[in-house]
Amino acid sequence: MTDATEYTPPKVWKWVAESGGQFAKINRPIAGPTHEKALAVGKHPLQLHSLATPNGVKVTVLLEELLAAGHSGAEYDAYLINIGEGDQFSSGFVDINPNSKIPAMVDNSGPKPIRIFESGAILLYLAEKFGAFVPTDPAGRAECLSWLFWQMGSAPFLGGGFGHFYAYAPTKLEYPINRYAMEVKRQLDVLDRNLAEREFICGDDYTIADMAIWPWYGRLVSTGAYESREFLDVGSYKHVIRWTELIAARPAVKRGNMVNRSFGPLEEQLRERHDAGDFDTKTQDKIEAAQ
Ligand SMILES: N[C@@H](CCC(=O)N[C@@H](CS)C(=O)NCC(=O)O)C(=O)O
Questions:
Q1: Ligand 1 atom with the shortest distance to the CA of 101
Q2: pLDDT for the residue numbered 96
Q3: For 11, 164, 167, 261, which has the most beta carbons within 10 A of its beta carbon?
Q4: Domain ranges of the chain
Q5: Which atom of ligand 1 sits closest to the CA of residue 120?
Q6: Parallel, antiparallel, or unpaired: how do β-strands 114-117 and 104-107 relate?
Q7: What is the DSSP string of 75-105?
Q8: Quick check: CB of 53 below 6 Å from ligand 1?
């Protein structure tokens, strides 16, 4: 281990507001709102407040898959939460997610609004509400929930651990990069061995477990994340790559990827979605051309 500086923790930790790193401005050691602002409310039963990060994409892919499967009750309004600008700390957003992180959703279809936060909880809520993409037999359901919760527990090591220290931290430190690279490669091997024997994560059927895992690990082995494709030798996970391409080809996945996207090619950005027709008329390239 060759870290240049050694840190001696003080007796009591204190917040140094500008500690460096890409997300230093939005990281705080306290919860709660920073400003008063109500959330917009659209016409559909489901109100999503999100951004097209991997956690956000999980939910928009499921919503688009539900609509494609004929569940018209899954119509939704999707509003953009710009986490770089601190939208997640508005009073309205904190009311629906006290943890101030996207995605968060409100279901207005019943007598009282129901709020749901945490992407895994939203996936399960919607799958159960519509009776789709989650098996109902005990063995199938157990397998699906096991992989869903595997993803929820594993992705923080990928994003908050590996991604943070390899790409975002102000200095490159050998110890944390080694620790998290090893863990991410182990996770990829877990997936690769599973997908060597199955078409989808849980077997023959495409489920919310695929929708949870694909935006994180599929991205890692295809377009890449944290500019780490070579470092992690992602090409060696052949079964993960085969599955990633299978999911990416689904039309609902392509649409789900565009919703609440405010980065990348303009024709792939549908920053707000209020209608199925918005994919044809309201992408950012068309909005900017009309201005
Ligand atoms: N466990 C949460 C994690 C959500 C999460 O980390 N969201 C990030 C974007 S991917 C966020 O909103 N970050 C804003 C912040 O940390 O202030 C989930 O799966 O919903």
A1: 12
A2: 98
A3: 261
A4: 138-250
A5: 19
A6: antiparallel
A7: -EEEEE--GGGTGGGBHHHHHH-TT--S-EE
A8: yes
